[in-house]
Write a structure and sequence with these properties.
Number of helices: 9
Strand order of the largest sheet: 1-7-6-5-4-3-2
Structural class: alpha/beta
Number of strands: 7
Radius of gyration: 18 Å
Order of helices and strands: EHHEHEHEHEHHEHEH
Shape: globular
Strand content: 5-15%
Largest sheet: 7 strands, parallel
Distance between the termini: 20 Å
Length: 259
């Protein structure tokens, strides 16, 4: 049976962040937490009997369009400071996976330098986070949703893993982004499952509930993951068509307390 995790940046958004933890627990669920102090996040996780599966390292100036720092030349010191901040949250919330975002690099002439910066920063982060027993994960994001994002295809992410060559670096495989920009979900899972530490789901098109309303056959993929012994979390990073609770009808067969 897959283990599903609620992404509190996209689900239960009709409530303040603090109230989303309780709502996730009520539905049977066991992105950025920085709006709250780490101690408060830890308290909310513990009080509601939850596990914090993964969250993003600070992405830079989100309002200004930044989507991560790892591949941005000249920002190395800021990147390292962001990882240190993230580790204060992982420590106080008992979270053992940290997503490090690459960032937006729109000028293709800068890509070789950006790649060198990216691999060097990831090598440092993987080693630093290993000291705290925190796994670093990277995610390919389609450029329709995030124009200019440096890491675009899952195959590119695999090449980055090979270049960095650190056992504390793994993939966050988002099936929504992967289907849009590359496809071949089954083949990728069967080939690279040992490198996948976290999975995220949303239907294509629309980024809505992982139900039968789109391109992806979710029962088939969830069964495939079970058959191959995937034991990690499956993050529900989708945009509910109406309310989160109403949209959870897809999850009845998977142990969640859908209405």
């Amino acid at each position: 049976m897959p283990r599903f995790a609620a992404n509190l940046s996209t689900l239960f958004t009709d409530r303040p962040l603090e109230e989303r933890f309780k709502a996730a627990a009520a539905c049977g669920f066991i992105q950025f937490p920085y709006a709250l102090l780490p101690e408060r996040v830890g308290d909310l996780v513990a009080m509601n009997g939850l596990e914090l599966a993964v969250f993003n390292a600070p992405p830079g100036d989100w309002a200004a369009g930044e989507r991560g720092l790892a591949a941005l030349p000249g920002r190395e010191e800021e990147f390292r400071d962001s990882i240190e901040l993230a580790l204060t949250y992982t420590d106080l919330t008992d979270c053992f996976r940290l997503h490090v975002m690459a960032g937006v690099v729109e000028d293709e002439d800068l890509w070789p330098e950006a790649l060198d910066t990216y691999t060097a920063n990831l090598a440092w982060a993987a080693e630093r986070c290993a000291e705290e027993d925190v796994k670093v994960v990277i995610e390919a994001i389609n450029t329709g949703d995030m124009p200019g994002y440096f890491l675009q295809r899952p195959d590119d992410a695999v090449q980055v893993l090979e270049a960095v060559d650190h056992d504390n670096l793994a993939l966050l495989y988002d099936l929504y982004h992967a289907q849009i920009i590359q496809g071949g979900l089954t083949d990728f899972i069967e080939t690279h499952l040992e490198n996948i530490a976290h999975i995220q789901v949303a239907q294509v098109p629309g980024r809505h509930e992982p139900d039968q309303g789109g391109e992806i056959n979710w029962p088939y993929l969830f069964t495939l993951l079970d058959a191959h012994g995937y034991s990690g979390w499956i993050g529900c990073e989708y945009l509910p068509r109406t309310t989160t609770e109403a949209g959870l009808r897809w999850a009845r067969d998977f142990g969640l307390s859908a209405p």
